[in-house]
Amino acid sequence: MNNRIRVVVVDDQNISRGFFEMYVRAFNRYELAASLRTAQEAIDYIDTHEADLLILDVMMQEGIDGLSAAGEIKRSHPEVKIILTTSTSETSWEEKARAIGVESFWYKEYDNRSLIDIMDRTADGESVYPSQMPEVSFGRIKRSDLTNRELDVLRELTGSLTNDEIADKLHISANTVKRHLQNIMEKTGINSRLDLAIHARLLGVVIPESERTNQHKG
How far apart are CA 197 and CA 190, in angstroms? Predict the structure, then answer.
């Protein structure tokens, strides 16, 4: 009788997906049930096959994103344990993942724990989330030197919103948005809103929701 844990890995980047495959195959406790490129394939697979553990990247180049897919899977198959992963340092997804019942969250680039540790603990019934936000250099500071509200403003800025649009989205005044942006510039030493947006996105400091969910694509 095969008592190994059936694992499905999902990532649209070949290198990352290959890394996940390697980890699963390296340990006798696990069996690679499927290796998939899109989150929609994961939803379809879980609907028609037996699986115990799903390792799922948040950002996808096409179709539904990993976070949204995890929500669908949890509603239909709550017994399947999920580890969401990302190569960015965007922390707002952790709260969303917890809210939909995702067991664990792992930052590929920034977590000091190994994936196998997260897999073992998740398979054993633990919920494993980072104890602190990723430390990413951003201008003269670290990401953690920005307040949550400053990160909120910066996230909307990377989505190409104006100050008025950011104010409406966050339910604050345009002057408050302007003040937050000035504070971020003073902290980072980055002196224009365009450069702020470019640096923040290239470094993965924040990711606008429209990009995660592909709303920016035609």
Answer: 10
